[in-house]
Amino acid sequence: MTSASLQKPFLSSTAGVVLKLERALNQRSIDSFLDLSEDHVVLNDHPRDKAQLKSLLTQSFAAARDLVIVNDTCDISVAAKRW
């Protein structure tokens, strides 16, 4: 992860989300992974919606029972929302 913020609450919160993501993938819990996902993502330079992402993960996990997912870099962007 690369971030300019060194504030402990931000880092702690971000670490918690990354841990949930890693846990979902390591447990092969597609539904848990999708709960953390946006409705539309870009994966391997291809835009995908949740249904496409679910299909891809289902195929990948079925095709490679010993599949290990390793993230060398985790890019996180933060956008403030005004209410």
Please, could you describe this protein's structure?
- This protein has 83 residues and is mainly alpha-helical.
- The chain is built from three helices and two strands; from the N terminus they run H-H-E-E-H.
- The chain has helices at residues 8-26, 30-36, 50-63; strands at 40-43, 46-49.
- A two-stranded antiparallel sheet has the order 1-2.
- A hairpin with a 2-residue loop joins strand 1 and strand 2 (46-49).
- Helix 1 (8-26) packs antiparallel against helix 2.
- The two termini are 28 Å apart.
Task: State the low-pLDDT regions, or none.
Answer: none
Number of strands: 2
Shape: globular
Secondary structure category: mainly alpha
Strand order of the largest sheet: 1-2
Q: What is the count of DSSP helices, taking H or I runs of 4+ residues?
A: 3
Give the amount of beta strand, in percent: 5-15%
Multimeric status of the protein: single chain
Average of pLDDT: 81
Supply Rg: 14 Å
Distance between the termini: 28 Å
Largest sheet: 2 strands, antiparallel
What percent of the residues sit in helical stretches (DSSP H or I)?
40-55%
Order of helices and strands: HHEEH
